[in-house]
Amino acid sequence: LKMSWFWLYLPLHLLSTTCLCHSIKAPTTNSQQSSKSSLFNFYHSLILADGKETTIHLLKDIPKRYYFVLEEGRVLAPFSVTVTPCDVPIEWSILVHKPPPGKATPGDHDTQEVSKSQRASSMVSTIFNYKGNSVETYMGMSSHSALYLLEFLSTERDTHITVYLTTDTTSGHLYPELPMDPRIDVIRIGHTTVTLAWKHSPSVLEHRESIQYCLLVNEKHNYKSLCAAETAIRSSGMKLPPTLALSLSPHLLEPQQVMILSNSELSIINKVSSGEVRQVCVGTKNTYTVPNLSPSTQYYFDVFIVNLLTNASAAYTGTFARTLEEPEPEVTELKDGKVIHVVLDGQKQKFYSLQYQARHKKIHFTFQLCRGQVRVHITRNGKTVASENLSGLRYFSLKGKLLDTYSVQLRSTEESNSSVKVQASPHFHKPLFPLLPESLKIKSFSKLRTCRSVTIAWLGTQEESKYCVYRKRIEEDQIWRELQSADRCSGPESRHKSEKVLCKYFYDLNLQRAVTTETIKGLEAGTLYLFDVYLFGPSGIPVRYHSKVVKTRKKC
User: Fold this and answer.
1) If 0-12 CB within 10 Å is exposed, 13-18 middle and 19+ buried, where does residue 378 land?
2) CA nearest 374: which of 344, 398, 354?
3) Domain Fibronectin type-III, which positions (predicted)?
């Protein structure tokens, strides 16, 4: 910054005035004393950088001052100052000092001290003052002969703020622009979800690759800046990455955790006593459904538009919503040996309750997960006896008293539909499912693979059972869908007859030798095939092994 005019002028007017307020003991008016104090503050101020966001740390009750001037030769130029409190409310003001008409000359030394004080008093004025914790911007016009002082004060506790000064209004904005209507609209409220929408920022249309929206969800209050939100998260003792960068899938989180993806670095934030805080970046989409919320709970939602190149952000006007109360699920009675197929809608009905009254001391619960992800919770006379996420086939053998009441609650843990088969019976009741091997995986042998055949193997049991093998030709882009969407409870009746390869019986009393292999012939070269094995027990209900995808050799 070129301030030669300032240093020539300052010794004649500001310095003499400063000395006056220390040496003259005569009474002075409040306005004169205030002016002298303001002028003295220029000597204890730092230069505020132009065109750069500056972080300033404030100690309680100790003011901090910065000044700036324009380049020499610019008569009138616009400038703006944006202050972002990152925690508690602060006080800040802008003072301007302008020289009186005419230039300083050596003859000014002969001027009486009182006239100097009167002239200096007319040169300093406060042009802006603010107190609060909102992001505030002052815009004005400056001349090259004006000096500006910014004063900041925190009266509550130590804190920090960011300040952005710019005198160049032609090369764009550091902060992303907000739309004319910066409000967040609540589109739909569910028991565990809230759908939000907001108007697009003009910056997204101009700089789509470097701009994105980030959403913050918490149970305490709204935040007026991303800086304030990050400060609150850090003060709770949680780890927070410096910059939000990529989108993520919040449904992958554990119930007690929150995930943030930052510059390809994944961080997990745990719940605090005051409730969880989530930050999620959604790219340039201006609608988002927040999942995995608790029923009958008030949440606060904030949307920030973030410039990934500068890390600068602007906040939409926050909103809040209360999720709906979870309706009492209908209770279905379980009967001895009867199988119930429960389908859970991830959007509408995520809970399902079953009840069983024991007629024997020992009770056997069987669960077969067919699709999706399901958590089971079993209570006996109101006390929890089992609770876990289901995987494949699961047995629970429980011992209690006659006429004990068992309650089984099933809950879908994802947004898509889930389903599970349930059976309750006395422990000695004929088992619904066949005896299972240690693993339901199908193994393929790469060295035995040819252009026209594939060899697979799977484990058996000590009980003679029937095994049926099916194959299906698939394309590369169908693998994920086939593996994820498969109904693990469906039997061969859902398969096309042409897909059946063979059925065979086998067992071995020595589990170490209870392994069988099968070579599937008549295949096409360089082709992907999906192989399934179904195990049938005495009841005739099948258990499906984990599907296996194998590709035949292209050249032999």
Assistant:
1) buried
2) 344
3) 176-313, 434-542
- CA pair distance 458, 518, nearest whole angstrom: 9
- Quote the crossing angle between the two packed helices 4-23 and 113-121, to the nearest 10°: 120
> Residue 441 is encoded by which pair of tokens?
């995986």
Whats the size of the chain, residue-wise?
556
pTM beyond 0.70, yes or no: no
Residues 217, 280: Cα–Cα separation, whole Å: 9
Round to whole Å and give the CA distance between 510 and 142: 93
Query: Looking at beta carbons, which pairs linking 507-511 to residues 24 or more positions away fall under 8 Å?
Result: 507/460, 507/461, 507/462, 507/463, 507/464, 507/465, 508/460, 508/462, 509/462, 511/438, 511/461, 511/462
Q: Given the DSSP bridges, would you call strands 542-544 and 528-536 parallel, antiparallel or unpaired?
A: antiparallel
Supply 337's token pair: 């040996």
Domains of the chain: residue spans and CATH: 44-99+123-166 (2.60.120.510), 184-239+267-322 (2.60.40.10), 331-425 (2.60.120.680), 442-551 (2.60.40.10)
| Predicted confidence (pLDDT) per residue in 32-80, tens digit | 444 445 444 555 568 888 888 889 999 999 999 998 886 655 566 788 8
Q: Check residue 498 and give its pLDDT.
A: 93
Strand 46-47 and strand 64-68: the pairing is: parallel
